[in-house]
Amino acid sequence: MAAASAGSMGLCWSPNHPHHQGGQTWRTKHLMEEFFSDSSQWWDNRTNKRNPTLPDLRHRSSAEKALWIDSRFHPPLVHVRVAVMVQGQEQGQSGFTTPEISRNVVRVEQLWQEFFLDPSQWWDTRFIKKNPKYPDFEHKSTHEGLWIEGWLNPPWVKAKVATMALGRVQSGSELRSGVPDSLGKGVNVRKLCQEGRLKEALHMVELMVQQNVQAPIKAYACLLKDCARRRALVEGKRLHSFIVQQGLHSNIFLKNTLVNMYAKCGSVLDARQVFDSMPEHNVFSWTTIISAYANHGQGEEAINLFKQMQQTGIQPNKVTFIVVLKACARIPALEEGKKFHLDIVKSGFESDVIIGSTLVDMYAKCGCVEDARQVFNNMHERDVVSWTALIAGYAQQGLGKDALDLYEQMKQDGLQPNIVTYVVLLKACASIVALEQGKHLHLDIIKSCLESDVIVGSTLVDMYAKCGRIEDAREVFNNMHERNVVSWNAMIAGYAQQGLGKEALTLLEQMQREGTKPDEVTYLSVLSACSHSGLVDKGQHLFDCMCKEDDVIPTIDHYACMVDLLGRAGYLADAEDFISKMPIQPNALVWMTLLGAARNHGHLEIGRRAFDSVVKLQPEDAAPYVLLSNIYAAAGWSDEVAKITKEMNDAGVKKMPGCTWFEAGRQVHDFVVGDASHPQS
Q1: Which of 65, 232, 629, 670 lies 20 to 30 angstroms, CA to CA, from 334?
Q2: 447-480 confidence digits (pLDDT tens)
């Protein structure tokens, strides 16, 4: 016969229902005492009853006396006594075995003696426990529990516990503190933080708060930094409440650390509230809150805060300038960036290599590559970050050839590229289809032992695919030790670009089987693959699955892909109807996609309507004029071609000359239509 599980049951009395409490609490306690004093007077119906509303235990003489087992309504140590009851005993026998009770009583008394001998070995959970079932004291090593109101406690326990005050317990002639002496100095807290034991350190601080022991500021700072590092927002908020309880909330050092913790945990609103509550701010306070906004995509507010800081008379330090320049780069905000550049010169930070690299990056991302190059040339010292920032600037602006030339100069200066450098260069090779340069970069990557990096591997896949070497791309993909969603997307996009729709779809299925969830980029690639392969029905099915199964919200690019899918297959009327039913406003890309399809299929009316919509959105773009002119020319409407040309000239729209690149002997040559300056033009 098995004993009932401890902690899984309790006892509750009710005349009609097991969950009734109210004014019957006193009656329940009385019946429990009566039951435990002589359980042989009770029927045990637990194994025989068929209806859960019937009582588990009923008195033999009085049918009104009934008890139900229910863990929610009783002190924890009731379960210790109930746990030794033997279910299914023959009627008339006692439900408890005397030896079991005796052993429990002895063990409980031993635990109390151990507790009073050295209370520092026990956690005091009385003020933090949320459930009355939890013990009042828990042993740090064995996790055995003690309850002050326990049924099996020896009679002297309550009197001795009554001497406890704020965590101090009288034992013999001496007072022993519930908190070790070293805790008051925060030594143990910092040690636990260093060992990565955040929860234990938090519990230790909790004990100090309960017992009115002042936790050191350094201990709080250490814990807050650990919360920031772990992105542990919940634990950080608990610490914040302890700081307030202990009256440390006005300490500027802790306030700054709190702002930093909330910012690193992604809660910019909480960070701002703490910042605004500070009676005074120093440069660290301002830098932390500016960084919070800049790192969470709110560059405009970061710039506004920087200006407010300047108005208060506080001078930015090097880190503040770096943060605000990065905010300018992300927006981008060129004019503001130029003003901050002047402030940097006045502050004497311009010669700093990190500041210089950040300025190069800011100008490059704002589209001013020449200004970026000028800052770069004026730098007294350059590191790999400086070179990478300028290389990325050239690559982002298109002429990729200049980025590759800079790479060669960088190597001549004896600098070793890092992962970011290689990723930028591989993207440059992909943009100008410089296969040979890409192969040499691949060799350099292998020599640098960076091939196993998942980002580098994914970019290699993308480079080979865009250079038309889909087999090489697949080989790199297959050899990757680790793949993320970017790796899968690169390979799927490669198949899509080569018109290999079935291969792209097969890879999508493999991706899902291996447990990687498709994202919006994945669906963009497979929709493009379906479009280039004429798989209209499959593409429409995937568009539906994207929304319903993977919770991917379609972007304007997905809608443009669907227009291309329908238009490329010749369903121009359906494509135009699809645009009219879009839940978001179609942009120039969507209409240009329809216009391109109209040109391919020679549909004049739809082409003209698409043209009118594009010109309203992008009046300075020459591409729609060229496409509509081609439609009219193919139909033999020379008069209409002349009208379109006149409209284009009247609007002041100029067609940019075509440009192409040619790779020969690891050298990339660019040619522009009408330009004969190249010696081999």
Answers
A1: 670
A2: 999 999 999 999 999 999 999 999 999 999 999 9
Structural tokens at position 585: 């406003």
What pLDDT digit, counting tens, does each position of 359-390 carry?
A: 999 999 999 999 999 999 999 999 999 999 99
332: preceding bond cis by omega (within 30 degrees): yes
| Distance of alpha carbon 29 from the chain centroid | 51
Contacts of 452 (CB under 8 A, 6+ apart): 481, 482
pLDDT digits (tens, 9 = 90+) for 609-620: 999 999 999 988
**580 sits in which H/E element:** helix 572-580
- Residue by residue, DSSP assigns 105-120 as HHHHHHHHHHHHH-GG
Residue listed under structure tokens 């229902």: 17
- Digit-coded pLDDT (tens) for 106-143: 788 888 888 888 888 888 777 666 666 778 888 888 88
Paired strand residues for 66: 58
The dihedrals phi and psi of 664, each to the nearest 5 degrees, come to -145, 125
User: Which residues neighbour 233 within 8 Å (Cβ) at sequence distance 6 or greater?
Assistant: 227, 262, 265, 266, 267
Letter string b/e over residues 242-275, b meaning 16 or more CB atoms within 10 A of that residue's CB: bbeebebbeeeebbbbbbbbbbbbebbebbbebb
Burial pattern 169-186, b for ≥16 Cβ within 10 A else e, equals bebeeeeebbbeeebbeb
Query: Residue 665 — left, alpha, or beta (φ > 0 → left; ψ -120 to 50 → alpha)?
Result: left
Cα–Cα distance measured from residue 320 to residue 395, given in angstroms and rounded to the nearest whole number: 28
Which H or E element spans position 357?
helix 353-365
Q: How far apart are CA 145 and CA 122, in angstroms?
A: 9
Under a CB-based contact definition with an 8 Å cutoff, are residues 661 and 436 in contact?
Answer: no
Tell me the sheet residues that pair with 57: 44, 67
The first and second tokens of residue 667, run together, are 């050298």
β-strands 137-139, 122-124: how paired? Answer: antiparallel
Per-residue pLDDT for 39 more than 80? no
DSSP 58: E
DSSP-derived letter for residue 317 is -
Count Cβ atoms below 10 Å from residue 677 Cβ, excluding itself: 7
Instruction: Determine the Cα–Cα distance for residues 339 and 333; give it in Å rounded to an integer.
Output: 10
In angstroms, the CA 386 to CA 506 distance is 42
Round to whole Å and give the CA distance between 169 and 90: 47
Using the structure block, give the residue that is written with the tokens 């060229």. 626
Closest CA to 204 of 193, 194, 508: 193
DSSP state of 123: E
